[in-house]
Amino acid sequence: MSAKFSGIGELKEKSLHAALKRWYALPTDGVEVKVEGFIIDLVRENTLVEIQTRNFAKIRRKIERLVENYKLHLIFPIPRKKWIVTTDICGNVVRRSRSPKTGCYHHLFTELVSIPKMILSSNFSVEVLLVDVEEYRCMDGKGSWRRQGISVIDTTLINVYSSKVFRKAEDFLSLLPQQIDQPFSNRMLSKHKGWRMSLAAKTTYSLTRMGVLEVVAKDRRAHLFARV
User: Taking Cα atoms as reference points, which of 50, 45, 81 lies closest to residue 157?
Assistant: First the structure.
């Protein structure tokens, strides 16, 4: 393949973040405004807008501090479709392939598990964007052994497919299967939705901490959950 991704050695992991900021911003928004010692991506009237592509735990202290006095809207992108573009060390594209993984709204719980009680604040809201992206990787021999030494260099935005806003704890119940019998265990949730057990556990943990699920019984060592 002759296509080339120029400047591959200079790429930073902020491309997706920057693209989403441009996509979401209005002409009247303040960009990268300093508020109480923190840099905020966008300020829209009386609302602070933060874009976080991963690792909510890193911004936990920031969110806790800001929601005391401001409305904070957190934007989280989930790759619905992802194409992996692999280059050599000179930036020449070796291959481009579609990842078999498909992101959905419920994958929010993989990050929300770090800050489940934040949604109890009337000043906090979350917007999930389902996006299509390209992930650039380089065959530089410096990456994870699981990727056979290939490094993840950058992720770029192709398209924003859809969005969903969560403003209160009850909104997250829409991500649970409505037909599931109650009470249910993590294993039952995992089988019903085809989720991994780890995702089911993070989901029930988060919803329990929010106060919209409760543990009502135990089946051997498994907790059984029901809607409050």
Answer: 81
Closest CA to 96 of 136, 154, 142: 136
pTM for this prediction: 0.87
Alpha-carbon span 36 to 1, nearest angstrom: 50
Is residue 25 within 8 A of residue 150, CB to CB? The reply is no
What single DSSP character describes residue 92? Answer: B
Are 125 and 167 in contact, with CB atoms under 8 Å apart? yes
Q: SS3 of 93, please?
A: strand
pLDDT digits (tens, 9 = 90+) for 176-213: 988 888 999 999 999 988 899 999 999 999 999 999 99
Instruction: Using DSSP, state whether 202 is helix, strand or coil.
Output: helix
Q: What is the pLDDT of residues 115-138, one digit of tens each?
A: 999 999 999 999 999 999 999 999
d(CA 63, CA 5): 36
For the record, the structure tokens of 45 come out as: 């009237």
**Residue 55 backbone zone (phi > 0: left; psi -120 to 50: alpha; other: beta):** left
**Half-sphere exposure of 45 toward its Cβ, with a 13 Å CA cutoff?**
2
